[in-house]
Amino acid sequence: MNERLPIVEKHKEELLKRSEERLALATLVGNLGLWDWNIETDEVFYNDIYFSMLGYSSEPFPFTTETWKILVYPEDQEFLFNSIQTALTQKNSSWRIEFRMKHASRGYRWIRCQGQVVEYSEKGLPLRAVGIHQDVTQQKRTEKELLENERKYRSLFDNMSSGVVIHNVVDGGNEFIIEEVNRSFLQVTRKSREEILGRKNREVFPGLNETIYKTYAKVYEKGMAMDVKSFNYKDDLLNLWADVHIFKLFSGEIVSIFNDFTGRKKIEDALENEKKRFENIINLSNDLFFLLDEDGKVIYNNIKVEKITKYTSFELKKMDIKSILFNFQTGKIFSAKGLLNKGCVVTNIVNIIHKNGEMTPLEMQCKRMPDGTIQCFCRDITRRKKFESALLRQQKDLEEKQEQLKEMNTALKVLIRQSRQEKNELKENLTINFLGLIEPYFKQLKKTNLSGRQLGSIKVIEEILEDLTSPFMCSSTAMNLKLSPAEFKIANLIKQGMTSKEIAGELNCSPQTIDKHRSNIRKKIGVKNKGISLRDILLQNIK
User: Fold this and answer.
1) pTM for the full model?
2) Alpha carbon of 101 to those of 44, 133, 214, 289, 381: distances in Å?
């Protein structure tokens, strides 16, 4: 029995040695700092890794708890020692604490300390504790990054304008449980998280059609993302339009992203209704209407265009407006530098060419709109053109008649002038006849033995005749020579071939008075001091 005792002891020593080797290998492989603390003496054993993981050697440091105080981050010391003291007062004392320790060259490192009391006194007081230090700096960084990424994900998730739903798949893809939703989805559906989370999709949203569920199942089965365009959801409270993007996560959940365009759909429907109303108005118009793109290609036309040109709408949409409008200026109007680019309304007269080659005249008004399109209203002016042609013909006729009237007016003026001349000649002849035929007889009567009463009557008759002939004398050709009545009377007697003496006896005045009148007559006629017979001149000028 005693002979076997050394063998057993030796075996125990080998086992202990192997155990220590395993422990050393474990601490080396795990890069673990090992410490063994005698609580009564405050002596602490530290292995080499304890210091090397912080970039130190063991020589400068005391093998006591003072080393902790030297290396632990000042703000973590109180927390660390309080935590250990609290743990030592408990039965089966152990602790797991994370704190920072100073590295030789890289600032502070995060250390995870795990300790355990392994010996107690008979009174139950802790005598010895052992533990390890593990550098968890990288793990802390990773956790911090994960936490930051989680915050970013949550912030992005909650602030996305699109609604997002994450589903757990149950029953092999036949049912989907709502696991998570974002804020936008709650706003769009007008529901709370309590109403949605943890419940089946069919319970929360009874208006979902089978197309969505079939798409969910297909995405879950195939693992490929799919889209459902222009999806309409309706129930008693909601009427939504959305584009849905569905995909599968690596964890197996199904994610739906809803891009709600209900507002846009309402606007589009309103615009579509406005477009239809506009088209109805345009099609009821008697004017032709074209909507063109920036290059003058036909985008839209009303029914009036098709009725007149006999082209179909399909045919017109392949055509350039310049190919169906005949006018030498059309190309200039629709050119890149044309008037339309100045933002003004351009009015022009054109001819639209029919499919059979005929043409209809149009008054065209065009304007370039803010979006670059061109609106053209064209009015059929066939009747106006006919009226204009008729007016031109009437104007031409009026001009011809006006010319004829001018000619007639000229002829009439000639006739009036001739009539006046004949009238004047008649007056002059009448005056001359009165003076030439009647006056000689009065002279003869005066030479006879007449009573005073008879002479008075003859004098009255002479005065009456003089009053009657004096207006004729004033308006006769002789008046053109500005002859006085006495000069006119003398001029007529000279024309009869009477001498100055005979005229003086005839008029009962002196020959000197007659000579004076003859001189005035010559002056007025323009033959004074000229050796021309006055009687010949008077015969030519006074008829």
Assistant:
1) 0.45
2) 17, 11, 57, 85, 98
- Tell me, yes or no, whether 107 lies in a domain: yes
**CA–CA gap between residue 195 and residue 197 (Å, rounded):** 6
Residue at 9 is within a domain? no
The answer to whether position 40 is within a domain reads yes
User: Does residue 193 surpass a pLDDT of 80?
Assistant: yes
Residues 170 and 219 both lie in one domain: yes
Instruction: List, in order, residues 6 or more apart from 7 with CB less than 8 Å away.
Output: none
Same domain, 468 and 531: yes
For 234, the token pair is 């309706």
User: In this structure, what token pair is assigned to residue 239?
Assistant: 């009427």
Total residues found in the chain within this entry: 543
Residue 201, number of CB atoms within 10 A of its CB: 20
The reply to whether 168 and 251 lie within a common domain is yes
Which structural domain, as residue segments, surrounds residue 429? 420-541
What CATH number does residue 294 fall under?
Answer: 3.30.450.20
**Cα–Cα distances in angstroms (integers) from residue 87 to residues 67, 90, 128, in the given order:** 20, 5, 13
Q: How many CA atoms lie within 13 A of 54 on its CB side?
A: 28
Is residue 86 domain-resident? yes
The residue from 265, 296, 318 where one domain ends is 265
Query: Could you tell me which residues are beta bridge partners of residue 101?
Result: 72, 109
For 280-304, the pLDDT digits (tens) are: 888 888 899 999 888 888 999 999 9
CA distances from 174 to 166, 171, 250 (A): 16, 5, 19
Alpha-helix residue ranges (DSSP H) falling in 251-371: 262-284, 303-309, 313-316, 321-324, 330-333
Provide φ and ψ at 245, rounded to 5°.
-110, 125
Our count of domains for the chain comes to 4
**45 and 133 in one domain?**
yes
Distance CA 110, CA 97 (A): 10
H helices of 35-73, in order, are 48-52, 66-71
Helix 485-495 × helix 534-541 angle, to 10°: 110
Report the distance separating Cα 301 and Cα 148, nearest Å: 59
Residue 321 identity: I
Contact status, residue 511 vs residue 500, Cβ threshold 8 Å: yes
Residue 476: the pLDDT is: 46
CB 291 within 8 A of CB 300: yes
Helices and strands: H and E segment counts in the chain: 22, 16
